[in-house]
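We store chain and fold; thus.
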Amino acid sequence: MKKFRAFTCSALLLSALLAVTPSVVQARGIVSRRAFDSYRLPNTTVPTHYTLRLDTDIHREIFDYTGNVQIRINVLEATDQIVLHSSRSEITHVQLRNGVGLSVPVKNFEFDEDKEFLVVNVGTTLQPNTGTYTLEIDFTNSIARNDQAGFYRSSYDDENGVRRYLGLTQFESVDARTSFPCYDEPGIKTTYDILIVCGIDYHARSNAPLRGIQLLEGGKKLSTFATTPRMQTYLVAWLVSDFKYEREVLTDPQLAIASWSKPSSVHLLSYSVDASKRFMRAMEEYFDQLYSMSKIDNVAIKDEDYAAGAMENWGLVTYKESAISYGPEDGEQRQVGVVTIVGHEFTHQFFGNLLAPKWWSYLWLNEGFARLYQYYLGAISHPELQLRERFVTGPFQTALRADNSLTVRPMTYYTETRPSISRLFDNIAYDKSACVLRMMNYALGERTFQKGLRYYLQQNKERGVVEESNLFDSLEQAAKEDAVLPISLSVHEIFGSWSHQPGVPLVKVRRDGNEYLFTQERYIANTPPEEPFENSWWIPISFSTPSNNAFEKLPAFWMPPNVSEVAYTIETVQDEVVSFNPHSTGYYRVEYEESMLRELIERINKDHTGFEPATRARLIDDTLNIAQSRGGNYDVVLQLLNYLQRETDYVPWAVAYENLRHMQSMLRTNEAVSQLLERFIEKIASPLLERYGGVDHRTGESASVEELRTIAIDLACSGSQSCNDDAQSAVRSLASKKHYTMEDNALLCHGLQHSNAEQRKALQAQFSQALSDKNLDNPSAKHFLHQSLSCLGEDMTKVQSFAKYLLALSDSDRTKALHRLLVELNVPLAEIVQSLQSELSQRRSNSVYYKHGPKLIFEIARYVTDPADVQLLSSVASSYDSWVASEIEQQVNANLNWVEQNVEPLKNALTRYFDA
């Protein structure tokens, strides 16, 4: 039975809990006339403006706060109930006034705790078109919460070792309701006046610019902010702190850009201000749309207090501290990190903020654009960082990996509950949708796509709420004007085939003279179901030959869905080979018939520079994945990978590295085949170490070279004596360093694998001391040390538990750490699972640990090939909803199928390779 609380608006504010059926809310003394059979608000009323006042005492280390919210509302349907959201707030008073300020009787208010509704029962029937009403609610709440959501507290230690507290917000997706009563749905946009009381030595920041400060009694002050643009509740934000800032004020038009942090880290914010300035102006020009306010703040929050990573609150963007910090000794890789995360959140100021999704079903309209343009606009604002090529090694690879299972969802997907909404923030919303948008960018031509997006912004910004059809309409208009689609095709038809279906296509191609024949099917990384898929897409087919690159990014033709085979003629000169989807502009894999594949591999081994780096990467990724999905011809795979001995470009190596690590993880319990694979990897990767002059970082190198050297260390160091000597040196010098490079992390881990017990014990002490050192104010250095903890293997638990450590990492860092622990250092998987089980059992169900637990369980499941581990992992999953166990079962079955299909063919091929 679900519990609901009902209150009268008099002395009976603390009436007893009432237990009723989940679908019906009952109020004390009356029978409710509405059964809430949906988690969506009934929307008989709609807000038109909020005035929100908060009174805080964070400066005195008092974490309770009081609030008053006045919500102007219009009535859309006759009703005697006003239904909005509220959770965690204690309501102390509710009153309702009509448009001329006269009181309207309120019988009582009540809570539907399952749906997080606050139901105000009115003593009369409110009629539509009778003017505006004002609902005023007094409430109390607290920021002493441990889930890093809603309005919560963080802290830092100042230069004297004194703990200083601050309060910040993180409302996406449905946590505005946990901090103040509101209509907490993404399609409901309105304006806000926000007023915040804090200590005289503290300051408040919010979405809109500060309008004025009033001194109050008791050493406090009231900060009043300008009215915000119309926006949804999850973007409402404020910060109460004693942070300092770096700022630059732009002109024409005026815009104040500031980055805020604890005082001791302010000197690390200059690069983020400059990156923000350059990206914002590039974005405004590209979309022909000015940013809506006169200021935008970036706020750096202590990493361990900010699980969200970053959040695009309109005008007040929040980040993990390490994400936007940049020191003079940091390399270009840190610049890439700052630019892309600032770019992601700033793109949201248009896609997500200016245009809000009508419902969470269309979350991809926010996240897909932000993921795409953090790279593509970042390449315009910061051309020196070569960000476009990083899309192929980042989001494109992530999407293909996430979209290859049987149970993956489509981009547009309807759901209502808090847990299921949270699940929508996945690689499909971010990475797959970015890939599909990027594909349409190339398929229509970037100029036409850009024009369509300008129409999309202009045509919808006044209403401010969108669904996918609005985007399709605008792109359609641009496509017709520029005549870039066949007359028989529409953007709705093409794009809908991608947004409404799960999965990634596999395009099979065979050759008959100059005629190429194509079929399509859904690609699955493992054994497909017995019943064939019915998925089918409109696919833009691109190709390149040495003498014809006209269609290397543009579609040569559109492959229609539900057609058995498509023929297309490509004229080639003697000995030319054709590569399809050569720049990964289309979101699909390509399977060549074997004779075509062998010809491509022969050419790439003879002269790989005859193919673009992106083409080499695409061939590696598709060939390896298709082989692994079927236990395929590994002789051909090894022949292809063999060319990497001469490869010097980052893009092919990054893609090969990811695939090789997956193979390592699948073989982690098979020592014989693992050793064969390691021997092969060392052979192809060792020349890379030599080519880049060994392991030492060099000032001024590009991010790509930094990463290439790190890949080489990871893959080849165990076979190089000089590299191992350098790794041991890195271990010895850790304590004396104040600045760390990407290469240091890889070297440190290799060095520790060959360290004795005494060295490891000393290093544990160094880690513990460094991580707790209050004088180490560089967030990047602390982030490095925290990442490197996993290099200690089982010994790291003397510093921090596996679960606490892994749950605190970002998604990408967690993936690396798990591979290091389970594959490179052979930590028993059971120890990590047991640590997770223990940690979760100590946490309340709404804590950040419980909320992010499934992510970690899924990551661990990728390594499970032993029945005992399966059983243990399933026991942890049982504390979650049934879908968690179902997803784990699917992943484990995929792993077992991989082992059954691939181990013997791979072993035999490797044996033949070394015997040859």
